Amino acid sequence: MVYPHPYYDHHQPAVPWPDDYDDSEPKRGKRNPVVAASLSGGVAVLVLAVGVLLGLQLSGSDPDAPDAERPSPTVAAPAPTAPAPTVQQEPTARRPAPDTTRLDRSTYATVTQREFALMAKDPDAWAGRKIVVYGVITQFDSATGATSFRADTGPAPMMDVYHYDQNTVITAYDADMVTDFVEKDRVTMYVEVQGAMTYETQIGGSTTVPSLMANIIESTSRPVPRPAPLPASLPDAETVSGNQLRSIATSDKPMVLATMTDTWVPQLSSKRLGLVAEGRTWTHSAILTEHQRLRQTYPGARLLWSGDWSTFSSSNFWVTIAGSTFPTAEGALAWCRSNNFDRDHCFAKLVSTTRPVEGSTDYNE
């Protein structure tokens, strides 16, 4: 078959086309329209599948979940029926319980002078203990800071600040506690012992002192001077004389028990407080004076308290006896006569702790 060339040159001879022109290229098989359509459809399905997979990957694992307009990368939204999670506060917001203990003054112990000295000697051994201290602020400036200061301290309020002799570093629990305090202020502090602290001094070298955390700090009024104690009122003469009589009788009793018990003795006097006799009312002073006179005149004389002996009918008399003893009443009466005593001022008396009153007294005629 011959096709005229569009630009046919009538002067050129006609060239015949190959007989198989209408066939496909010799080296390529002819395409089947059905196969071509199948390939095109497969490619389309593959592209669609890839698109679906990419979409699922981007939208999440749940293909039914709607696209989130504002995705949160870290917090998943809780289920509608689940309670909202509680966000815990920082530890600094949970201090009521420690603060209650910190401000409870009853938890702070008062210490003696010795205990305070032991704390100052070894603060580390006292670390954690809560005590009450008193003192005067000695340094509170830019060098110490807003919450720390130095103070001379002691276990009790002092009249004179020079009696506070323990250098101490105090750290306030917070700056507001010490805003109004300055050097030379007297303070009462409820503190917790932190231990020993070493710091450099301004004159060179270092010093180690107790370090205390002040949980409560307040101003201490200067103690009111106590008036000098009045001298104890002197006991009156009656009290002194009565005490002397008791002392003499107590001192004489062992000797009487050892050498005069169950013997007859001359009784020279028998008086009690308030007795009206011989034209006077007898007092302790008068009884003591008479006894001392008789004791000086008759060596060996003794003083008895009638209540200590069984042969006296009354238990509240001071009795003076001579030092001589006799086996019978007559011997004692003879002694009275020989010393010129009348019947009423000297008679025979049996001294005993077991004999009865009856028959224990005899008189001169």
Automatic annotation (TrEMBL):
- Where is the stretch described as Disordered? 62-105
- Name the residue ranges with Low complexity bias: 73-91
- Here the segments flagged for biased composition (Basic and acidic residues) are 92-105
Q: Where are the transmembrane segments?
A: 34-56
State the UniProt keywords alphabetically.
Membrane, Transmembrane, Transmembrane helix
Keyword Membrane among UniProt keywords: yes
Query: What's the protein here called?
Result: Uncharacterized protein
